[in-house]
Amino acid sequence: MKRIGIYYHPSFSRKSYMTIGNRLRDFPEALAPLLARPNVRLIESPPVSEELVLKVHAPEMLTQVAHDGFCSTAYESVGGVVAGMVDLATGEIDRAFCFIGAGGHHAGYRQFWGACCFNDVVIALTHTREISPWRRFAIVDTDAHHGDGTRQLVRDDPEVFHLCFCGLNFTSDDRTKVDVNAYRMNPHADPDAQYVDLVRQNLTLIPAFKPDLLIWYYGFDTHRDDYGSIGLTEPAYFAICDLMLAAAAGMGVPLMVVLAGGSMSHLATATIPEIIRRLAET
Ligand SMILES: [Zn+2]
Ligand SMILES: [Zn+2]
Predict the structure, then answer these.
(1) Which of 41, 91, 149, 232 could cross-link to 236 by cystine, CB 3.0-4.6 Å?
(2) From the CA of 263, which ligand is nearest?
(3) Which ligand is nearest to the CA of 106?
(4) CATH code linked to domain 4-281
């Protein structure tokens, strides 16, 4: 039975950056049935240290984030992702689900936008390299938007595979940075089936890279009711989750899920516990 760590902080439900509708308002209560399982643990996200943030970001980012009301949960958001990756790298757990209050993939070296503050995933992998033998990380971004901050930070890092489903179409010379255009789907065919097929096809690029960890950056802003809609519905996220689980299992590496964009609380409640259930049962 796989050991699952859920990283969460109460401030994410009170001061989430998605202030309209407060998307995590049903949490942590919605996790209660999962937490009754012997293999699922809830861990309170600790704040990340400034020292660690400064290994990835310019010093002026600390001041900018301190003055941005949307970033009130920035330190705990990153801290949970760091803690989750450390627990995976040290073998404490097999799979992680990290909640966040402030996002990460639009945070670059000295700038951030789009409800992001510090780059959670890049800070976490920077630290994980310091404390473990892990070097190679595969990030699969299924948020609706291009992960520009992440791309800027890992552009020259050949040991990070960054696969991003967005509006771009790009493959780097070394083939470790890939953007797949998910905006231009056939309007006459089912969006869920087309998107899931795109993910399935492109996940086949990863095994040759031989990552130590697979990271799924999960946004539900792609949902047909949400602000980055490309017409998806809930079953698409579960199908993607199963593809990620199969990919990680096929490579023999752990799976880490990091929450990304999406504003609707009913979608958070309808998808996150089910995704964690699949992590715990598969
Ligand atoms: Zn987004
Ligand atoms: Zn992209």
Answers:
(1) 232
(2) 1
(3) 1
(4) 3.40.800.20
Q: How far is the CA of 145 from the centre of ligand 2 (A)?
A: 7
Give residue 219 CA to ligand 1 midpoint distance, Å: 6
Q: Which ligand is nearest to the CA of 18?
A: 1
pTM: 0.97
| Nearest to 147, CA basis, from 47, 59, 228 | 228
Measured in Å, residue 33 CA sits from the centre of ligand 2 at 35
Mean pLDDT by 10 residues, the chain (282 residues): 96 69 90 98 98 98 94 96 98 98 97 95 98 98 98 98 98 98 92 98 98 99 96 98 98 98 96 98 93
State how beta strands 177-181 and 170-171 pair: antiparallel
Question: Do 15 and 72 form a contact (C-beta atoms < 8 A)?
Answer: yes
Which residues have CB under 8 Å from 218's CB, separation 6+? 142, 143, 237, 240, 257, 258, 259, 260, 275
DSSP letter at 47 equals P
Reference 234, options 204, 201, 202, 278; nearest CA is 278
Q: Which ligand is nearest to the CA of 152?
A: 2
* Phi, psi (deg, nearest 5) at residue 232: -75, 160
Domain ranges of the chain: 4-281
Ligand 2 centroid to Cα of residue 237, in Å, is: 18
